[in-house]
TrEMBL record:
Keywords: Carbohydrate metabolism, Hydrolase, Magnesium, Metal-binding. Belongs to the HAD-like hydrolase superfamily. CbbY/CbbZ/Gph/YieH family. It comes from Pectinatus cerevisiiphilus. The keyword Glycoprotein does not apply. CDD domains: HAD_BPGM-like. The keyword Disulfide bond does not apply. Pfam families: HAD_2. Gene3D superfamilies: HAD superfamily/HAD-like (3.40.50.1000), Putative phosphatase, domain 2 (1.10.150.240). GO terms for molecular function: hydrolase activity; metal ion binding. This is HAD superfamily hydrolase (TIGR01509 family)/HAD superfamily hydrolase (TIGR01549 family)/beta-phosphoglucomutase family hydrolase. Its cofactor is Mg(2+).
C-alpha cells in the first residue's frame, strides 16, 4: 500500500458521544425529540444527512443549514470550554510516524472543515496531511464512496493502493465501495453501538496494533 486515509471522529478524536449529545440538544431546541440510540444509526455520516432525515420525519419547517450550523456551534463550544475532548489513544503517534516515513496521508471526515482543522491544529497534526476533505462539502455522504475516491484522486494514488482507517459502519462501507483496503478500529467503548465492522479487511481494538510495516506490507 502506498497511502493512508484517516477518518477523524472516533479514529483521531474521541468525539462520537459528544456529537450525539449535541445533535440531541440541537434537535430539542427546534422541538424535535431524539434518543441516543437513534443517533447511533448515523455514526460516520454527515450532519446534513442526519438532520435532513429528522426534519423530514418531524415534517418540520426548519432550514437545514440553520440547524446544522447550530449543532456545530454547540459542539465547538463544548470542545473549547470543556477541554475533555481527547485524541484516540495511539492516533497521533501513528500519524506522526507515517509522516516521518513520507507516506502520503489524507483526512476524509464527514465533519465540517472548520471542526476538522480545529482538532488537527489542536492536536498538532494539521501539517501531517497532504489532503484534507470534508464530507459536508460533497454531494454524497458516507456510505457513498465519493469522499474516499476523491481523497485517492487528490493524493494521486489508486484507491486500491490506499489504506483507510475507519470506525463506523457507514465509513467502512464507503471505503470498501471505493476499492480501498479498510482497517476498522473497533473501539471497545462503543462495542454496544450496533456498528458492523465485518466488511473491513482488518479489525483492531487499538490503533497501537497498527504498524507502518503492517500497512506497507498489505
Amino acid at each position: 500500500m502506498k497511502a493512508v486515509i484517516f477518518d477523524m471522529d472516533g479514529v483521531i478524536v474521541d468525539s462520537e458521544t459528544i456529537h450525539i449529545k449535541m445533535k440531541i440538544q440541537a434537535l430539542k431546541e427546534y422541538g424535535i425529540e431524539c434518543s441516543p440510540k437513534e443517533c447511533m444509526a448515523y455514526f460516520g455520516r454527515s450532519s446534513n444527512a442526519f438532520f435532513s432525515d429528522f426534519i423530514k420525519k418531524a415534517s418540520a419547517d426548519i432550514p437545514l443549514q440553520e440547524i446544522v450550523a447550530r449543532k456545530h456551534q454547540l459542539f465547538l463550544q463544548y470542545a473549547s470550554d470543556n477541554g475533555a475532548v481527547e485524541p484516540i489513544d495511539g492516533a497521533l503517534d501513528l500519524i506522526k510516524e507515517l509522516r516521518s516515513k513520507n507516506i502520503p496521508l489524507a483526512l476524509a471526515s464527514s465533519s465540517v472543515r472548520y471542526n476538522i482543522e480545529w482538532f488537527l491544529k489542536k492536536f498538532g497534526v494539521f501539517d501531517c496531511f497532504d489532503v484534507i476533505l470534508s464530507g459536508a462539502e460533497l454531494t454524497e455522504s458516507k456510505p457513498n464512496p465519493e469522499i474516499y475516491l476523491l481523497a485517492a484522486q487528490k493524493l494521486g494514488i489508486k484507491p486500491q493502493e490506499c489504506v483507510v482507517i475507519e470506525d463506523a459502519e457507514a465509513g467502512i462501507k464507503a471505503a470498501k465501495s471505493a476499492a480501498c483496503y479498510c482497517i476498522a478500529y473497533c473501539n471497545p467503548a462503543y462495542k454496544d453501538c450496533g456498528q458492523d465492522a465485518s466488511a473491513a479487511d482488518m479489525r483492531v481494538n487499538s490503533l497501537k496494533d497498527i504498524s507502518i510495516e503492517k500497512i506497507m506490507n498489505i
